[in-house]
Amino acid sequence: MKSLKKSVLVLAISSLSFAASAELKPLEDSHMGNITGQAGVTIELETQVNIGEFLYTDEGSLSVKDIFIGGANRTDMFAEFTDPTIRNFLFAESSDLIDNIKVEIDIADDGDALINVFPLVAAPIDFAVRTGEWSLQGHTDSTVLANNFSMDGVVTELKIRVDTATDEMNVQTLFAIDDLDVDIDFLALGIRDMRVTGADFDPNNPIITKLGAKVDMDIYHGARGNGDSALAIDLKTFEADMSIGQVLVGGTSIGSVALDNLSVQNTAMRIYGH
Fold first, then answer.
1. At 15, is the secondary structure helix, strand, or coil?
2. Could you read off the pLDDT of 57-99 as tens digits, one per residue?
3. Cys-Cys with 272: which of 36, 159, 230, 245 at CB 3.0–4.6 Å?
4. Is position 3 within any domain?
5. Are strands 113-119 and 125-131 parallel, antiparallel or unpaired?
């Protein structure tokens, strides 16, 4: 009886194994084409970064102290938007956090990585960058290059694509700076109220979609002049209007500067150690 039970058990297991094997068939390419993954990953983000000191050391050092990266915490940026309804919609809410950020990450059919950064709502993403002293430090001497760096601005778009066909990373962004101030101590220079906007932005008829300066660049593993390896940065397009409210020399203003329809194109950089 035990032998019979064992035989029945073996037969049952064999039958199940055969049935399972019979069901395991390779999928045809046409069937594989009908199988798709999920729609991608979306990240909603808010953040603030504080760094006591950034120190780059070669033989001497470059030091940047008291770095802050966060929200502008201002509701008065880009005062040319005077319509109360539009202004409240665009700039009514701000804090010391970089927020209102949505990051969408997708892998395309050809393997390209797509990273798109947009505002969660239609209002632009406001940001601020502030630092203390920038200094060069040697074993015996040091020089303060710059101090009191402060920049407030917005980002309306950031797109990154890592292309598997070219092994290049393309970066496209639209950004605007409402106010940039800095003291360049070792030259007795000061910059006040520097602004950067889109080349087509008209302060007399402000349109939010034209506010941002345009940047389009490729970053990849390239070659320097002698053929050896280098970090390659190709700035394909930079288009902007720029202005400086005051240029200070020795603490006294010598006037203002404006650049209209600035366009920088086809600029190639190769970066490597020596």
1. helix
2. 999 999 999 999 999 999 999 999 999 998 988 888 889 999 9
3. 230
4. no
5. unpaired
Map residue 147 onto helix, strand or coil: strand
141 assigned to some structural domain: yes
Concatenate the DSSP letters of all residues of 196-247 into one string.
Answer: EE-TT--TTS--GGG-SEEEEEEEEEEE-TTS-EEEEEEEEEEEEEEEEEEE
Strands, E, within the chain: which ranges? Answer: 41-47, 49-57, 61-70, 98-107, 113-119, 125-131, 134-137, 142-163, 168-184, 189-197, 213-223, 229-249, 252-253, 257-271
* pTM (two decimals): 0.83
In a domain, 127, yes or no: yes
- Spatial CA neighbour of 83 closest among 213, 210, 205: 205
User: Domain range for residue 218?
Assistant: 43-271
Q: Give 179-189 pLDDT, tens digit per residue.
A: 999 999 999 99
What's the domain count of the chain? Answer: 1
- Examine residue 73 and state whether it is found in any structural domain, yes or no: yes
